[in-house]
Write a sequence for this structure.
């Protein structure tokens, strides 16, 4: 029993030519899943191709310029996210927790003014809300 195809090759095989196209279904689905930086890079490349075609080196195709813009945008986005993310992510997390706590305390204050919740329960809920605001847990990605 043969493990490989032993039939003789008939004629020369045609060269395989793969070309990326933004208009095809695959290109469109790739554009939908791009990170923000990649999308900005593609848009910037499109602006360069449309308004400043003299900046494109001789012999470069539109696909090459768009791919370079997409790759550059993704790399720049990841770099900026890595550099500034360590600072901005905790600030965003704590600002969101503070906003949520403020909304919950305001709602609790309205219920307390209407007399719908006893004073003892109000104090317990306030303590719980404040504790949750102070001890914000990091969400896992």
């Amino acid at each position: 029993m043969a493990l490989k195809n032993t039939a003789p090759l008939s004629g020369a095989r045609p060269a395989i030519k793969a070309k990326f196209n933004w208009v095809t279904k695959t290109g469109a689905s790739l554009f939908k899943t791009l990170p923000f930086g990649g999308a900005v890079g593609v848009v910037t490349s499109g602006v360069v191709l449309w308004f400043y075609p003299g900046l494109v080196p001789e012999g470069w195709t539109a696909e090459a310029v768009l791919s370079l813009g997409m790759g550059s945008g993704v790399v720049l986005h990841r770099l900026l996210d890595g550099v500034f993310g360590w600072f901005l992510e905790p600030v965003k997390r704590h600002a969101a927790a503070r906003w949520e706590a403020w909304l919950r305390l305001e709602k609790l204050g309205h219920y307390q003014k209407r007399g719908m919740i006893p004073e003892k329960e109000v104090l317990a809920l306030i303590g719980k809300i404040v504790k949750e605001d102070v001890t914000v847990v990091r969400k896992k990605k």
The CA atoms of residues 93 and 140 lie 12 Å apart. The mean pLDDT is 82. The longest helix spans residues 62-114. The radius of gyration is 29 Å.
